[in-house]
Each structure stands twice: as C-alpha cells, then as structure tokens.
Amino acid sequence: MSEKKGLFGLWLAALVACVGIGLFATFRLFSEGHYLFNTNDVIILSLPLGVYIFLALTSSGLTLLSAIPLVFGLDRYLPFAKRLVFLAIATLCGAFVSIGLELGNVWHMFYIMLSPNLSSPIWWMGAIYSIELVLLILKFYTIHRGDWSSSASKALGAASFICALVAPLMIGSVFGITESRVTYFGPVMSIYSLGVALLSGTALFILYSMVLKQLALTNSDEQNEPLYREFMTLFTYVAAMVVIFTIVKYLIEAATVVPEFLAIRKFSQPFGTIFGVHTEIVLGLFLPFILLLFPGIRNQAQGRLITSGVIWVGTLGMHMQILIAGQSHPIGPKAEQYGLALTYYPSLYEWIVFLFAVAVMLLLYTAGERYLKLEAVPD
Question: Is-contact 201 62, C-beta < 8 A?
Fold first, then answer.
C-alpha cells in the first residue's frame, strides 16, 4: 500500500508539473502572440489544432460507446457507463485546452459563440461540442446522484448521443467544404471523421481499462472479461471499417491527376512513407489491425494494451498527416512567394500545448477514479 501511495504521489506531482509548464506557456502565448508557433501565411493549422481534433473525436467516440447501455438499453454494459461518460468529459476538456491556446486567446472561443455565423461549419463545430460538454456534465451528475433511468436522465443521454454523432461530421465538413484545398475537399472527410471518432474512442477506452487492470485498480476484471471480449470484437470491426475506408481514400488520391495531389506526391509526408504508404497508417492502423485478427492477441491483456495504444496514437498521426499535407502546397498569390511545397515541424510551445492538454485530461481521469466511484451501477 505504501508503495502504491508513493507512486500515486509521483504521478500527481508529474501531472501538476506538466500543468504548471502549460500555464507558463499559456502566459507567454497570451502576452507575446502566435509567433511562438511554427506557422506562416500558408501553414496556419498546427499541432494544437490537430490535438484538438484528435481529442474531440475521441471524446465523441467515448460518448457513442456510452450510448450502448444508456440510450440503447444493453444493461450488461452498465458497469462501464459511468466511466465512459466521465472519460468523454475529461477528454473533451483536454481538447478545449488545446483549441483555446491554438486560437491565441481563450476568450476567442466565447466570442465565436456569442457572434454566431450559422453558415459556418466552424461555428457549428464549436457550438455542438460546447453543448455536448454541458450535456455530458449534466448526464454524469444525474448518474452520480443515482438517477439512471428517469425521463430527464434518458433525454440527456439521447441528446449527448446525437451531439456525438453530429460533431465528427461537422469537423469533417470544416475541411470538406474547402474547395480551394483539393486534398481536403469532398464528402469523404465527414464520413472519415465519424469512423475515426469511434475507432479512437474505443481504442482509448480499451487502453484505459487495460492500464487500470495492470495497476489492479479495479476489482471486477474476471466478471467483466466477457464484456471486454465484446468490446475487442467491436474494436476489430471498427478498425476494419477504417482500414477499408483508408485504402479506398488512398487509392482515389493515388489515381488522380489533380495538380495538388501530384505536387504532394513529390515531397516527403510529415512522417515519411513505407513502400509508398504513409508511415502512420502502416504502423498506427494496418499493423495493429492485423494483430487484432489473431484471437490469442485480442484476448490477452498485453495484446489489448499494445493494439489499442498503437491505434490511439496512430489516429493522432493520421489527423496530423491530413492537416499538414493539405496546407503544404501554396495556392493563389502565395504560390509565387513560397516554393512548390512547404515542410512543418512543431515548435517547443506547440509541444507544450500538447503536453498541457493531455496533462489536464489525465489529471481529471485520476481525480475521477479516486473520488467519483466510476464503477458504480444502478441499485
């Protein structure tokens, strides 16, 4: 017990230190400006925005999973329901930390909400995720009070599910309607975002559950083992769906002769390639998916930990590859000022924003596990 208390103290100290570093970076960003990021007139969307998309979509995926018992009534999943809702809240809070600092001033988020542009997907994205966060907090509060099945509690669950379903589609549309950026443009971005949301949410939940199991912080692992196997089956099917979609998307891009795609092919992708395929897709999606096809790996705690962790991190790489590759080719007057394609590497402050967002998320996870009885089920 004393050893666990000592490790817990070190864990809290590390998270608090990361938050302190993040607050220092926040002060510098608010006082000195956006020049601390490695952005320019062409590449304006950087790592903090990629982290926001990554965490926001993961939160939507967790909310969709929580709807299995809370909206669709599959009561055998109720032991996971409260934890799923709380993880969705904490992950979305981390996402808002990242986007708040990417905007250069956290007050810009409130200004956007108070000056709506109903024709803007960006406004709808922010509005829907803000509403989703409020609904999730209210839903968690009702569950924490023991209200699992009242009409108000069910309505909150249904409303948060709808928001989690629409929000990834809206994130995809932010890029998909950008006609000037051919590599973004098209309806596939919305469908892709929804698929990756469910994939990353499922990956994070399995990863988190396996970490708790390794740390022996849960006392019902054997009882819930059949449910973990069902989640792994769902995880495999979702991964298969994203793999198929990614292959189709890649083949379409590889076959086109649109100048923007031709230009991008001439230069190294942000993470390089393996046999002509993006590294983050090979290592972060294809390889773990192949591992998931083997029951011996899928049904072991270590196999679950590795495959879910690799896919979850891999989805961040996939988001960043799309984000940067779509901006790397200058268009319009900027095509005369810059070269045919630009490269991008995150600055130190962009990495600190990433660290800050993840630290806030993990600090909330830790507080929830310690004080909020996330394993609770209806009486």
Answer: yes
Question: Which pTM does this prediction carry?
Answer: 0.94
Give the pair of three-digit tokens for residue 275.
């046999």
Which residues are within 8 A (CB) of 91 and not within 5 positions of it... i.e. 6 or more apart?
Answer: 55, 58, 59, 62, 204, 361
Token pair of 33, please?
A: 């400006």
* DSSP 3-state percent helix, strand, coil across the chain (nearest 5): 75, 0, 25
The 10s digit of each residue's pLDDT in 283-302 is 999 999 999 999 999 999 99
Closest by Cα among 98, 144, 132 to 368: 144
Point out which residues pair with 273 in neighbouring strands: 278
- The whole-angstrom separation of Cα 255 and Cα 120 is 32
Any residues with CB less than 8 A from the CB of 309 and at least 6 apart, and which?
A: 203, 207
Q: Which domains does the chain have, with CATH numbers?
A: 36-369 (1.20.1630.10)
Longest alpha-carbon distance in the chain: 68
Helix H or strand E segment including 274: strand 273-274
